[in-house]
Specification:
Oligomer: single chain
InterPro entries: 6-PGluconate_DH-like_C_sf (IPR008927), 6PGD_dom2 (IPR013328), Mannitol_DH (IPR000669), Mannitol_DH/Oxidoreductase (IPR050988), Mannitol_DH_C (IPR013118), Mannitol_DH_N (IPR013131), NAD(P)-bd_dom_sf (IPR036291)
Strand order of the largest sheet: 6-3-2-7-8
Largest sheet: 5 strands, parallel
Helix content: 40-55%
Protein name: Mannitol 2-dehydrogenase
Keywords: Oxidoreductase
CATH superfamily of the largest domain: NAD(P)-binding Rossmann-like Domain
Pfam family, one: Mannitol_dh_C
Number of strands: 13
Radius of gyration: 23 Å
Shape: globular
Number of helices: 21
CATH class of the largest domain: Alpha Beta
């Protein structure tokens, strides 16, 4: 029978399962992490765990936090197993399990975030980190500036002591830290955003300025917001993942599966100190932008290259997509001919080599990463991951035909039906708006590009707009595979 995961049962786990060798009762907190999803627990939490295995970072343990009802459900599940997580590494040659113990508490989730604000105000917290999805930073997609008109932001500006957002809670905590002489903390974004630290700084400082300009100036001058590139493919957890943990003899309500690859490149800008993550395999660098550009342009955009065609063809996982000969060829051609020319090499890895690495990672059959998960929130991912390369291609005079086809596939997918007639369940925060515009674009493709908040002036670029319209009409008339084959034929 499987053993219920807890501190008391660690020693009873099967020998093949790695478990913390350090004394968790002696760990002291140093980090509040907001957004305790799978990615954090497979990535940042794991790096810290590996430091603790070396006898290091014993005063940097993680306190979990959140602001949504789902976060309270997660807190209760984690608390019942002493905040331990089973990580299951999925490799084509076999899988392995490891229990991670770097998280030691989880703040109760309440309306107004009072407990979270109080915990972030304590002087032992020196880093507040976040994984709240790339679309969660209240950024205007067209201008990349702060969206002060969002209802959540309007609320937090008017009620700074009872905020709705994680950022409002951070601002409230920083106000108390300043007033009590505790000092600043480092805000650490761990989401897939270019210049993610700069984006977090913009959100925090801009929100503070709406209610307290002097506080905004103090935050801007004293807090640090290091940019970082994070990378690990981490599928969502469902019954299959829970069953995998049971197969290792562990009864874990929230196990995490992940690929056998991780990367974390970080600017060394921490106003109150930091763990030595580099001793666990992370990399401190002044060239984070180079690493993140390679990853976002090739990996994250690469996901968007393939998932909408796959959704329309009812292909359910990323590995199955890569086994589809036509979509795989499409992926290779767009990456190597239209994306790679605009990516600068980083030490130890050319863009072409990185495409080959991503190809192998996407094709890993042990990773059951769903098309639906990767296609989620296209309204953030396309402007953030794909369209910057379109603009580079237009400026440089290189081909954007394949990227125009990628956007046409997204527009067709957002109409809400697959080619077999089945419905696509809503998969974007703005799904109803996208579906309405996608329906109009069936007759007039330009309607899609007129979403200026996503496309900016690209509707006015004939080389892109004409290609987009041609591909969208072809998809509707001849189908996805015919359009892909036409592109591949040149």
């Amino acid at each position: 029978m499987a053993i219920k995961l807890s501190n008391a049962t660690l020693a009873s786990l099967p020998d093949e399962v790695k478990r913390p060798s350090y004394d968790r009762s002696k760990l002291r907190p140093g980090i509040v992490h907001i957004g305790l999803g799978n990615f954090h627990r497979a990535h940042q939490s794991w790096y810290l765990h590996r430091l603790m295995e070396q006898g290091l970072a014993q005063d940097w343990a993680i306190v979990g936090a959140g602001v949504r009802p789902f976060d309270e459900e997660q807190r209760l599940k984690m608390a019942a197993q002493d905040y331990l997580t089973t990580l299951i590494e999925l490799d084509p040659t076999g899988s392995s399990a490891e229990v991670v113990g770097s998280m030691i508490d989880y703040v109760p989730v309440e309306e107004g975030s009072g407990p979270l604000i109080a915990r972030m105000t304590e002087p032992d917290i020196r880093i507040v980190a976040l994984t709240v999805t790339e679309g969660g930073y209240y950024v205007d997609p067209a201008t990349k500036g702060f969206d002060a008109t969002h209802p959540d932001i309007v609320h937090d500006a008017a009620h700074p002591d009872r905020p709705k957002t994680a950022f409002g809670a951070m601002v409230a905590a920083l106000r108390l830290r300043r007033d009590r002489g505790v000092g600043p903390f480092t805000g650490q974004c761990c989401d897939n955003l270019q210049s993610n630290g700069d984006v977090l700084r913009q959100t925090i400082v801009s929100l503070a300025r709406l209610s307290d300009p002097e506080l905004a100036d103090w935050i801007d001058a004293n807090c640090t917001f290091p940019n970082a590139m994070v990378d690990c493919i981490v599928p969502a957890t469902g019954p299959k993942e829970i069953a995998l943990a049971l197969g290792f003899g562990i009864d874990d309500a929230v196990p995490v599966t992940h690929e056998n690859f991780r990367q974390w490149v970080i600017e060394d800008e921490f106003c109150q100190g930091r763990p030595d993550w580099d001793k666990a395999g992370a990399q401190f660098s002044d060239n984070v932008h180079g690493y993140e550009a390679q990853k976002i342009r090739i990996l994250n955009a690469g996901h968007q290259v393939i998932v909408n065609a796959a959704e329309l063809l009812h292909i359910e996982t990323i590995a199955e997509i890569m086994a589809h000969e036509t979509i795989h060829a499409f992926f290779r051609k767009v990456e190597l001919e239209e994306i790679v020319p605009h990516v600068v090499p980083v030490p130890g890895m050319t863009p072409g080599q990185y495409v080959d690495l991503i190809d192998r990672r996407f094709a890993n059959p042990a990773i059951v990463d769903t098309t639906r998960r990767v296609a989620f929130d296209g309204s953030s991912r396309h402007p953030g991951f794909v369209l910057p390369t379109v603009r580079d291609g237009l400026r440089a005079g290189t081909s954007v035909e394949g990227l125009a086809l990628v956007e046409a596939l997204w527009a067709r997918m957002c109409e809400g039906t697959r080619e077999d007639g089945t419905r696509i369940a809503p998969n974007d925060p703005f799904w109803s708006d996208l579906t309405a515009v996608a329906g109009a674009a069936k007759a007039d493709p330009r309607a899609w590009l007129e979403m200026r908040h996503n496309y900016g002036a690209l509707a006015d670029e004939p080389r892109f707009a004409d290609a987009f319209g041609r591909w969208l009409r072809m998809i509707w008339e001849d189908g996805v595979e015919a359009a892909l084959r036409r592109y591949l034929a040149g």
